[in-house]
Amino acid sequence: MHLFRSSLVMLLLLTLITGLAYPLLVTGLANLIFPWQANGSLIYQDNKLIGSKLIGQQFTRDDYFKSRPSMTAEMPYNSMASGASQLAASNPLLLNEITKRIQIWKKETHNQHVVPVDLVTASGSGLDPHISLQAAYYQIENIAYSRKLTKNEIEQLIKDNTTSPLMSFMGEPVVNVFMLNQALDKLSAEKQQKVSTQ
Length: 198
Description:
three-stranded antiparallel sheet; two-stranded antiparallel sheet; P-type potassium transmembrane transporter activity; ATP-binding; mainly alpha; potassium; 198 residues
């Protein structure tokens, strides 16, 4: 009986410490020190929530950079159903899907270069907001044509929105598609304003 009571007290004590006190402390400190990051890195425009820097979005218009495919359930980039397709690299269904995506990219962009792998394969979470520099540069011609911008202007936007890893062996530089498209909208609006005031 004594052993049972000691075990129960220890269970309750550890539950309070690790299940209540510690999470409250960490959440409180995170909100105090990093409030924007702790609340999901949410982006607002005109007091309206338009997305998060941490979760990808599906962009379908020709004048936007496209994200990598998302295999989340019900709809692309569904943060409530994070996950991959679970198809093995040897599965013919995956190969067929990738082949279709390659054909769509070549048809839409009229670009005969090799389609970067991250534009035709989904990430493990299905929520990745980033693409490789190769994937961003692959889309430049289409964006320049659709937005009536120069390639140099778009290349500069890509450079400005590129994130490099802390150390080179930890990965490659990536571009956040959502933030890049926000910068693209801003540049287009500034150029239109200049034209209208001339």
